[in-house]
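Crash report, auto-generated. Payload:
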Amino acid sequence: MEMNVLNMLIPMTLNGLIITIGVFVITLVVSIPLSLVVALLRMSKNKIVSSIMGGYIYIMRGTPLLLQLMFIFFGFHYVPVIGYAFSRYQAIFIAFIINYTAYFAEIFRGGINSIDVGQYEGAAVLGLSRTHTFIKIIMPQVIRNVIPSIANEVITLVKDTSLVYILGVSDILKAAKAVSNKYSSFSPYIYIGVVYLAITAVLTRVLNRIENKFNYFR
Amino acid sequence: MALTVENLSKNFGKTTVFKDISFTVDRGEIVCIMGKSGEGKTTLLRCINNLETVDSGSIKINNLYLCNEVNGKIQYASKENMKEIRQEMGLVFQNYNLFPHMTVMENILEAPLFLKKTNRKDIEKRANYLISELELKDKENNYPYQLSGGQKQRVAIARACMLNPSILCFDEPTSALDESTRSQISKIIRNLASQNIAIIIVTHDNAFVEEISQRVITLSNGSISE
Ligand SMILES: Nc1ncnc2c1ncn2[C@@H]1O[C@H](COP(=O)(O)OP(=O)(O)OP(=O)(O)O)[C@@H](O)[C@H]1O
Ligand SMILES: [Mg+2]
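Recovered output after restart:
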């Protein structure tokens, strides 16, 4: 019986991993750079721009990601004028990217605000331009400061990928559910739990490496 | 004159920090600005270094106006002139404001490499000269957190001197130093003055003033006296 469970679970898990890891990687690759732009716009002196960004971040952080996924897939095409029917995968990527961008943007904003004004002034009296100051003086310190918070969100994202089940997409958790139903056994969930733990273990190591690499100064 | 300040006034909202102050500093001179806490010494230094905007009056560095009153309105230098003025000015902050993620050498090289006034070889030559002059020889690959207060200050001085400024300003240079590092810093400052740099020092430290100063300007109640 257990062999049958595994025989069914393993191929389904491998297929599910493509979804889980795909959502994870694409969300990170797009959200992190995009969130820096959002953070800068949020901090813009232009009141309109900064409040639009503030509103966007409020909505993203104030509602569940599950609801956002459902809205984008089931609800968005009812919206007048801009309404559009996204495919499942489009909806998934859009929802994850805009949600995580908001969280990362707040982390970057905090990181940028935490830099002492003395750093900007030190750069200014040396004649460094504003762009050069931001890229070479401010950002390296911001990155060092935000890595632990970013790492936290990255780990959360691994688990959040399971929310794609709501749109009927087969990730690893959905694989467990299918096998569990078929064999009336709970063990597939245990196996999948172990898969999540393995992914998290690898990520934790990678993230610790990155954190140490940027921790060469105080 | 390296620095000419005329009828300078600065307010923060309704509070007047100083009003109509005028003074000059020549190249090679060491001038101390004294005054009680909160009299506006740091603010004056920040205005001269364009970290604060003034409300009226003029600041002239060599023959360029950092700011000037034109038809009763304050006007700041054009972008081009500002660049030039920046290079004539150096400021050593009270807390140094070194870049923590850069080594001593990187801190010193950052501005000249960005401004590209000369080639990299000459820049590195000058950096090495300043590093040995300021006794930082074995520290050039250290990060700021690995330095003592006095060493950080010397890095800040080297960094400010890289661009050959004609005016070098210090805010409370002795506030974090002990007796022996203080006499070391006054030797360094006197040496800089002898290289024809105008030195402006904001300080509370009477012993230090006695040791170093040729002229003392006192700020009190928003005006100055010599
Ligand atoms: N950014 C600011 N906004 C408003 N007021 C300010 C600001 N910076 C300084 N002040 C005020 O201006 C006055 C002069 O401050 P400043 O720091 O220049 O004094 P100081 O002479 O350097 O004092 P200390 O000897 O304690 O360093 C103070 O009353 C201070 O509260
Ligand atoms: Mg002060």
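Post-recovery validation: Residues 179-194 of chain B form the longest helix (16 residues).
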